[in-house]
């Protein structure tokens, strides 16, 4: 595949990040206690392997990746996205010998968020349309998986959620007024 130097280096950096993510996921799956959370990571894992392998193919094969990265649908499990169970307080553990499920979920969620930002940023820098599209799909994969992890954390009381107050929405809503489309744009 014909790549510019900066495209190849971006893919290299993203591939190193995948090595880290996959290694962590392998560890996490052997230590998760909650069956629902473990099943979620087991569903996500093959997509991360495919993502990694596609990057390896872009770096090593003249034709690039052999097949596209499948993007999972968004999983909707919460009844409300603005109300959560009682949130459980947390304090960093300075003597941890192993991670609990909350710590694993937090690490995984933050990894997905960081990877998603990196994919979006790299996609904006790609001149090669095939690689750009692949990175956009990788962003969407991370976004959808992060949403699923976030929902699990909300259900467990590990992530605080509360609705914006009517006063906040009124204040913010009053800042902006709709703009009419010019007739030539219709």
Secondary-structure element order, N to C:
HHHHH
Low-confidence runs: none
Distance between the amino and carboxyl termini:
41 Å
Give the C-alpha Rg. 20 Å
Q: Quick one: overall form?
A: flat
Strand proportion: under 5%
What percent of residues adopt helix (DSSP H or I)?
55-70%
Largest sheet: none
Q: Provide a count of the helices.
A: 5
Output the structural class: mainly alpha
Integer average pLDDT = 95
Written description of the protein model:
With 186 residues, the chain is mainly α. Helices cover 61% and strands 0% of the residues. It has 5 helices and no strands. α1 packs antiparallel against α2 and α1 packs antiparallel against α3. The termini are far apart.
Question: What's this entry about, in short?
Answer:
It contains 5 helices and no strands. It has 186 residues and is mostly helical. Helix 3 runs antiparallel to helix 4.
Structure keywords:
186 residues, mainly alpha, 5 helices, 0% strand
